[in-house]
Design brief:
Radius of gyration: 28 Å
Distance between the termini: 77 Å
Oligomer: single chain
Order of helices and strands: HHHHHEEEHHEEHHHEEEHHHHEE
Strand content: 15-25%
Strand order of the largest sheet: 1-2-3-4-5
Number of helices: 14
Shape: globular
Structural class: alpha+beta
Helix content: 40-55%
C-alpha cells in the first residue's frame, strides 16, 4: 500500500508540536471536534469578506446595495455555522462593516482564497526538498509591479507583537508559497488583518525563507515516521480549550484529581523545582478551564430551564450587579451654578448627586433622567437552600 502523502499546514505543525496524542486524534483517527464560537465567527467573517472581495475585483468599489448583500452573506453563514449567541453574531457584523470601509490596501486585488495543496482548482506547492504544503491565502494585493501583499484575516482580540509576527508559522508558509506561485514579485509583504483592530505587517528575508524551508523538512520527516506508540498526551496550558479533551485520559485524570500531594521543597534542586512549578501551573490552568466550562454549561442550563440548580444543601443562581452612573452633560444642564457642578463632577456618583437633589428637590426628576444603569456580566453565586417546613 502506498504511504499517505502528508501535506504541511500551520495548524498541523502546531498540533504535532503541542501534543502528539491530539495530533493522532485529529489527523490519523479524524475524531469529531467541537467548534467554539470564536472559530465559527472567523468562518462567517472569512466567507463574507471573500464574497466582498469578488465584488471588489469586478467593480473596484462597493455600492450601498453591495454592502447590504455582503452583510446578508455574513448572516447566512452565521446561521449555517450555528452562532447561537446573538451578541457574537452582531460583533461579526461590525467587524465586516469596518473592513469594508478600508478594503483596498494596494492598487489592485489579484486573488481571494488562493488555495494550495487541495487538489483540483488549487496550486500544487512543494518546497525545494519536496515537502508538500496545504492551505489558503485569504487575499492577495498588488502594491506595485514588484511588491505583493499577502493578507490573512484574524478575529482575535489580541494583537501580536512584532516578534510574534516574525515567527508566525502560518505567515512563513504563506511567504514561501507566494514566492513559489508568484516568482515575478521581488518583494512579499505579509499582513494579519486584525478585524477588531488595524492590520499589522511583517516580511521574511531570503535567508529566513530558506531557513524556514529547512525547518519544514525536519518537521515533515518527524511526521512521516510517526507511529501510534508516539501518540503520548502532553499536558499544557491549552488543554482546557482542546477540542479532544473529552477523549484524553490524561486530561480526565487531571480534572478529576483532588488529592494533590506536593513534593517537599526543602531539599529540591532548582531543576526539579522548575518541573514541579510547570506541572502545578499547567494543572491550575486546566482546573480553571474546567471551572469556566462548567460555569458556561450551568448558566445555559438555568437560562433554558428557568430553574435554579441545587444539591440538597446549596442552591446555585445567576446574579448580576447593577451600577448606576450619571451623564455629566445631562447633569450640567440641570445645575446652573458652575462651582457646584465642578464639585459634583469631580466625584460624580450616586451619593453626591442624591445629596444635591435632597437640597434641590425641584431638580430631582431631571437628575433622575440623567442616571444610567448598567449591569455587569452575569456570574454564578451560591446560597444556602431554604429547607421546607415540615407539616
Amino acid at each position: 500500500m502506498a504511504k499517505k502523502v502528508i501535506k504541511l499546514s500551520a495548524s498541523r505543525i502546531k498540533t504535532f508540536l503541542d501534543c502528539k496524542q491530539k495530533y493522532k486524534f485529529m489527523y490519523i483517527d479524524r475524531l469529531p471536534k467541537v467548534l467554539n464560537p470564536a472559530f465559527k465567527l472567523g468562518l462567517a467573517c472569512h466567507e463574507a469578506l471573500e464574497f466582498a472581495g469578488n465584488i471588489w475585483i469586478e467593480k473596484g468599489k462597493f455600492t450601498a446595495a453591495d454592502k447590504k448583500k455582503i452583510l446578508e452573506k455574513y448572516t447566512e453563514v452565521s446561521v449555517k455555522e450555528g452562532i447561537s449567541d446573538h451578541s457574537i453574531h452582531e460583533k461579526g457584523i461590525e467587524l465586516v462593516k469596518s473592513r469594508l470601509k478600508s478594503f483596498a490596501l494596494g492598487r489592485k486585488v489579484i486573488g481571494l482564497e488562493i488555495k494550495f495543496g487541495m487538489g483540483k482548482d488549487s496550486y500544487d506547492v512543494t518546497t525545494t526538498d519536496g515537502v508538500p504544503l496545504i492551505g489558503a491565502m485569504d487575499k492577495l494585493v498588488e502594491i506595485d509591479e514588484d511588491t505583493l501583499l499577502v493578507v490573512d484575516y484574524k478575529t482575535s482580540a489580541i494583537v501580536p507583537t512584532a516578534d510574534d509576527l516574525k515567527h508566525d508559522v502560518q505567515l512563513s508558509i504563506y511567504d514561501l508559497t507566494a514566492s513559489i506561485i508568484y516568482p515575478q514579485y521581488k518583494r512579499i509583504i505579509l499582513s494579519l488583518d486584525m478585524l477588531k483592530f488595524d492590520p499589522v505587517y511583517t516580511y521574511r528575508t531570503l535567508e529566513e525563507r530558506e531557513e524556514f524551508s529547512k525547518y519544514l523538512t525536519t518537521i515533515h520527516k518527524e511526521m512521516t515516521s510517526f507511529t501510534e506508540k508516539d501518540a503520548k498526551p502532553t499536558l499544557n496550558i491549552f488543554c482546557p480549550w482542546c477540542e479532544y479533551r473529552e477523549f484524553c485520559s490524561e486530561y480526565e485524570k487531571t480534572v478529576k484529581k483532588s488529592d494533590y500531594n506536593f513534593l517537599k521543597t526543602v531539599n529540591m534542586d532548582p531543576t526539579d523545582m522548575f518541573k514541579e512549578w510547570r506541572q502545578v501551573k499547567n494543572t491550575m490552568s486546566i482546573l480553571k478551564g474546567r471551572e469556566r466550562e462548567l460555569t458556561m454549561l450551568m448558566q445555559e442550563k438555568m437560562r433554558e430551564d428557568e430553574e435554579q440548580i441545587d444539591d440538597g444543601e446549596k442552591e446555585l443562581y445567576i446574579r448580576q450587579n447593577a451600577r448606576s452612573s450619571f451623564d455629566p452633560v445631562a447633569v450640567a444642564k440641570c445645575i446652573p451654578d458652575y462651582t457646584t457642578f465642578a464639585t459634583l463632577v469631580s466625584n460624580l456618583n450616586n451619593k453626591a448627586v442624591n445629596k444635591y437633589a435632597e437640597t434641590n428637590p425641584a431638580l430631582k426628576a431631571k437628575l433622575e433622567e440623567a442616571k444610567h444603569t448598567n449591569y455587569t456580566a452575569p456570574f454564578l453565586a451560591v446560597k444556602n437552600l431554604r429547607k421546607k417546613k415540615e407539616n
